Automatic annotation (TrEMBL):
GO biological process, one term: L-histidine biosynthetic process
Reactions this protein catalyses: D-erythro-1-(imidazol-4-yl)glycerol 3-phosphate = 3-(imidazol-4-yl)-2-oxopropyl phosphate + H2O
Similarity comment: Belongs to the imidazoleglycerol-phosphate dehydratase family.
Pathway: Amino-acid biosynthesis; L-histidine biosynthesis; L-histidine from 5-phospho-alpha-D-ribose 1-diphosphate: step 6/9
Pfam families: IGPD (PF00475)
UniProt entry keywords in alphabetical sequence: Amino-acid biosynthesis, Cytoplasm, Histidine biosynthesis, Lyase
Protein name, UniProt field: Imidazoleglycerol-phosphate dehydratase
Primary enzyme class: lyase
Coarse class of the protein's main subcellular location: cytoplasm
Cellular localisation: Cytoplasm
EC number(s) reported in the record: 4.2.1.19
GO MF term (any one): imidazoleglycerol-phosphate dehydratase activity
HAMAP family, A to Z: HisB (MF_00076)
Length: 193
């Protein structure tokens, strides 16, 4: 099974995470940021990854360090769990509607980190999660995992729906990309670095 677990301890956060890419979508999430917990739970469910995230961060300052550090650690964990990437589909894409919102997440497990993020928010926060931290989470994940990640919200009004669509589509796209399809590295170069 493709699993990994890691801890990250800094002066700002203490985080433990565990992932199983061949799981059932089970999750245990506790970051101290309710809406973020909800989004990570949805991500685990829609990716079918088993995911544990336990974070103790300096939330008295703000949510930035906790969310960014969770993204960094999750990216590293994902990369480790993938192993040599042999046989994976590599690419994933999902158009996902959430009521009035339509979102697309397309990604390439390329070894080349890059984030394109097109989504406008009307609110500063959803619960205690800053809307600006949605992009920061995905940037941290992309850089740490070496994934090219395009996130586009085409239209919609409700910011809750936008973020929820993004996390669900992200899970569905990753589920496609990690699926084992062959016994070869999915690159004409013979490596994904």
């Amino acid at each position: 099974m493709r699993t990994a677990e890691k801890s990250r301890d800094t002066k700002e956060t203490k985080i433990y995470e565990k992932i199983n890419l061949d799981g059932n979508g089970n999750s245990e999430i506790d970051t101290g940021i309710g809406f973020f917990d909800h989004m990570l739970t949805l991500f685990a469910f829609h990716s079918n990854f088993d995911l544990v995230v336990k974070a103790d961060g300096d939330l008295e300052v703000c949510d930035h360090h906790t969310i960014e550090d969770c993204g960094i650690l999750l990216g590293k964990l994902f990369l480790e769990a993938l192993g040599d990437k042999k046989g994976i589909a590599r690419y994933g894409s999902m158009n996902l509607p959430m009521d009035e919102v339509l979102c697309n997440v397309t990604l390439d497990i390329s070894g080349r980190p890059y984030l394109v993020f097109n989504c406008d928010f009307n609110r500063e926060n959803i619960g205690t999660m800053s809307c600006e931290m949605v992009e920061e989470f995905f940037r941290a994940f992309s850089v740490a995992s070496g994934i090219t990640l395009h996130i586009n919200v085409f239209y919609g009004k409700n910011d809750h729906h936008k973020v929820e669509a993004i996390f669900k589509a992200f899970g569905r796209a990753l589920k496609q990309a990690v699926k084992i399809e062959s016994d070869k590295i999915p690159s004409s170069k013979g490596v994904l670095e």
